[in-house]
Amino acid sequence: MALRRGHNQARKWFLTGASIVIFGVIGGCASTSSRGSYGPPPIPEGKGRLWIQAGNNLNVNYYVIDEETGDEVHAESPRTSGRSPIGYESGQHSMSQFVDLDPGKYLVVVNTDIVDTAEKEIEVLMGQDVHASIQVGRFQVIFSDSQGRSQVPFLIYDYNMRTRLGEGMTSTELRYFIVPVGEYKVRIENSPTGLDEIRPVQVSMGQIQNILIGPPPSPAQPGEGGSEAGQP
C-alpha cells in the first residue's frame, strides 16, 4: 500500500510538472507572438518616442537635428526620389515611422521631391510619445500622347511660375511626388511636337492629386471644320 501511494504521488507530481511546462510554453509563445504582432516595443528607459506623421502614414525621408547642439542625431531614407526610374510605390500604408530619442528639443526635417523641405520643431519628454505632424501631400502625373509615349520629363514651378522648384518623370507605374502643402504648376514641354501643357495642382495634407495630361488637339485638315464654313 505504501508503495502504491508513493507511485500515485509521483505520478501526480509528474502530471502537475508537465502541465506547468505546457502552460509555460504556450504562455511564452503567446507572449512572443503578441510582442511581434501588436504595435511598437516599449519606450526604452530614459528615452522619449518621436512619431513622424506625414499624411496617411507615408514613409518619408527625414532627419532629426538636436537644437541645442546643432548635430544630426537620426536619419532615415526609406523611399527613392520621384525622379528615379525605380520610384514605384505600392500605395500600401505601413506603420508610422518613429525614433526613440533623449529628452530635449529637436528639429524634424522632411525631404521632399522639390528643393523645399518641410520642418517641425518638437520637444521630446522622457517616457512619452510626441507626434510631429508634417505638412506634406502627394501628387502624380499621368501622361499619354498620340505616339503612345507615357514617360516624359516635367517641371514643377511655384503657382506664379516664377521659380522652378523641381523636376520629375512620368511613368506607367504608380509614382508619387511628395511636396509641402501649397499650390504649384506642372509643365510638360516638347518643342518639336508643339506640346506645351501647364496644369495647376493644389496639394493638401494627406491627400493625393492626379494630374492627367493627354495629346494636344490635332490641327484641322483642309476640307474639315471651319474651312467649310465659307464655302457656298
Summarize the structure.
The relative contact order is 0.14.
Q: CATH superfamily membership of the largest domain, which one?
A: Carboxypeptidase-like, regulatory domain
> How many strands, what sense, and barrel or not for the largest sheet?
4 strands, antiparallel
Spatial separation of the terminal alpha carbons: 129 Å
Pick out the low-confidence regions: 1-36, 220-232
Count of the domains: 2
Radius of gyration: 30 Å
Order of helices and strands: HEEEEEEEEEEEEEE
Strand runs, count = 14
In terms of quaternary structure, the protein is single chain
| CATH C-level name of the largest domain | Mainly Beta
For the biggest β-sheet, the strand order reads 3-2-5-6
Strand content: 35-45%
Task: Describe the overall structure.
The protein is α+β, with helices and mostly antiparallel strands and 232 residues long. It folds into two domains: 48-134, Immunoglobulin-like (Sandwich); 137-213, Immunoglobulin-like (Sandwich), CATH 2.60.40. It has one helix at 2-37; strands at 48-53, 62-66, 72-76, 97-101, 104-110, 118-124, 129-133, 136-143, 153-158, 164-169, 177-180, 182-190, 195-203, 208-213. The strands form four sheets. The chain has a four-stranded antiparallel β-sheet with strand order 3-2-5-6, with no helix packed on it. A four-stranded antiparallel β-sheet has the order 10-9-12-13, with no helix packed on it. Strand 9 (153-158) and strand 10 form a beta hairpin. The radius of gyration is 30 Å and the shape is elongated. The model is unreliable at 1-36 and 220-232 (pLDDT under 50).
